[in-house]
């Protein structure tokens, strides 16, 4: 078997089913197994079954939540090569892979393209590909996961931002790096292994999954009327120029705050504060475009 495709039929509000039917002609006469998830967490189990096969490519056909589950099945071994066929709501991970626009070429790249070592983030026993965070972004992620069937793409996240903007109140958070702690009233904190969240928001514009560190983006406790003007800058990544935003690199950090505050990773709610977050350099090989 050259590859295993882990297919999530629930991804993208039905989009994944259509994409699978579209790619099947490109998979004929190839030694490729397609396995279908049956519910939350199943993609992790299906990935774990083959996690020790170093000559195997594992493809996640779904959204960022599916990719999150698959990578958590492949780690901590990290022996297989990973690729994706995007079919979700946000599709943020694939934005850094430089895949071709053509579906046929995209599938070929996901299966056979050049591979490069990627860093991952880790929070306790959870691994993540893109961005983890606490505060406003975690609240929006939770809202978006509940409402994915009511829209597609970035619009779901924009609706979540608008819904949560007026009612959200900043909370005190403490960040500790190398034994040095800083506390401030916080709107949100994001830890970027890659740049994007929420369907293309360039939240951590300097994040690079090949440099062995996160870009941290920490926003102080802003007023409700300041939220939308700041967030309109996020798609271009210019929000980091505002005085209320701090950015800095870190390989490892602890984030503390009220115990009821959610934490997300790859847009999936994974727990509450406090958390210890670290980079896993060169954790897994990923098929990329040129």
Automatic annotation (TrEMBL):
Instruction: State the taxonomy lineage.
Output: Bacteria, Bacillati, Bacillota, Clostridia, Eubacteriales
Recite the UniProt keywords alphabetically. ATP-binding, Kinase, Lipid biosynthesis, Lipid metabolism, Magnesium, Metal-binding, Nucleotide-binding, Phospholipid biosynthesis, Phospholipid metabolism, Transferase
Species of provenance? Sulfobacillus thermotolerans
Question: Which Pfam families does the record associate with it?
Answer: DAGK_cat (PF00781), YegS_C (PF19279)
Q: What is this protein called?
A: Diacylglycerol kinase
- What InterPro entries does the database record attribute to this sequence? ATP-NAD_kinase_N, Diacylglycerol/lipid_kinase, Diacylglycerol_kinase_cat_dom, Lipid_Phosphate_FormReg, NAD/diacylglycerol_kinase_sf, YegS/DAGK_C
Give yes or no: UniProt keyword Lipid biosynthesis: yes
Tell me which family the UniProt entry assigns to this protein. Belongs to the diacylglycerol/lipid kinase family.
Look up the record and name the cofactor or cofactors this protein needs: Mg(2+)
Organism superkingdom? Bacteria
The record places domain DAGKc at 1-127
Write out the GO MF terms: kinase activity
Record bears the keyword rRNA-binding: no
* Cited SUPFAM superfamilies: NAD kinase/diacylglycerol kinase-like
